[in-house]
């Protein structure tokens, strides 16, 4: 269970987040939807303790991330890139990450297998393609077999096969009772897998509820999104 | 946690460059300088610091380690994702920043102390082998002083790099100052107080000769420790407060 409770954030004079509140519940895929720069990544970084909120709380099972011991066994997160130093091999990266949270070394080979990187495990990650980096990032997120998954734009950089795989992986994870929170600016993609949707625009939540609830009378989630944000051409 | 940080550090090629450079530079200098030094000794040169003087060059290795243990966290992981760094993975694995800060510092101290001890002993032994046992007497105190100097400089590099969030600033500042033009040394020509700057004062822990004002080794050690402690405290505050 993820609880975002009245989280605010300013950088300089710019307000990044304003009173953002929502929940992501176990057994459901919660889609966090918004245009680029709306505050999705900032919210996720605050949830993971990487950035500090200006106000409010972001909790996992009632605790701030930093208060969780061996956090990787509770939350698996995928952010931009793999997080691996480019001089390290995929396996060496996963090994130190596993060791840091007391996760058995054999789990490294398991997650490499899950994401399909077994054959590239000894290669330096600096030579990885964008898609391979994403898969390595996902492997790290899965190391601790966590009940909560947080993914920022997970399908970025994946090929069609990878996107399809990711979709069924996330659905299965929720099916097993995990809490899945994923952010995306791809509405069609989100509409395919999300049970619940939180729409954020310019740092504030403009709608939240079940996918059907947020879509409402509109034909698609995309139509609903533009009606909610009133920004047909934000670029 | 310290073991994880050791493992991360020693898994990097740049760290090994620092280790190898730091361990071999001073002994190599003894050999390279040997002919000139023999002549100088024959001409009555002061040999108080022979063997110990060369240790200065090896501290580049310690500085590199102090930089790399932080800069590796802030280096971009790939060209296609500008904001992605190892630090994200590190903080997700260990979100308690002060513990992480301490673990990194401890790992750095262990590596540089081991390296410094090895190099100091090697260098002094080699000096004695080359120039005879009459010069460069074994001195546990001076070797300890040199190792401590080493460790403190590594911690200083660690603190500066963490505050700057990249290694270029530190490397420029420390390496240029230590090897090319010593701004600190030039300042001593302006004011005697400059002798108390962190990089200069520490050398008094293991060097005895030289034209400058003498500062007792223990005093020198305490002053340098205070400098480094202050820098570490500043870096810790920044690291604790800042967004990753």
UniProtKB/TrEMBL annotation, chain A:
Q: Which InterPro entries match?
A: AAA+_ATPase, ABC_transporter-like_ATP-bd, ABC_transporter-like_CS, P-loop_NTPase
User: Does the keyword field hold Amino-acid biosynthesis?
Assistant: no
By what name is this protein known?
Answer: ABC transporter domain-containing protein
Q: Which family does it belong to?
A: Belongs to the ABC transporter superfamily.
What's the domain of life for this entry? Bacteria
One Pfam family it belongs to: ABC_tran
Provide the alphabetized UniProt keywords: ATP-binding, Nucleotide-binding, Transport
Do you know which PROSITE patterns this protein is assigned to?
ABC_TRANSPORTER_1, ABC_TRANSPORTER_2
User: SUPFAM superfamilies, from UniProt?
Assistant: P-loop containing nucleoside triphosphate hydrolases
Claim: Nucleotide-binding is one of the keywords in the record: yes
Q: Which residues form the ABC transporter domain?
A: 2-227
UniProtKB/TrEMBL annotation, chain B:
Q: Where are the transmembrane segments?
A: 12-32, 52-70, 106-126, 146-164, 171-197, 217-239
The answer to whether the entry has keyword Transmembrane helix is: yes
Q: Which domain of life is it from?
A: Bacteria
Enumerate the UniProt keywords alphabetically. Membrane, Transmembrane, Transmembrane helix
Protein name per Swiss-Prot or TrEMBL: ABC transporter permease
Q: Which organism is it from?
A: Paractinoplanes deccanensis
Q: What is the lineage of its organism?
A: Bacteria, Bacillati, Actinomycetota, Actinomycetes, Micromonosporales
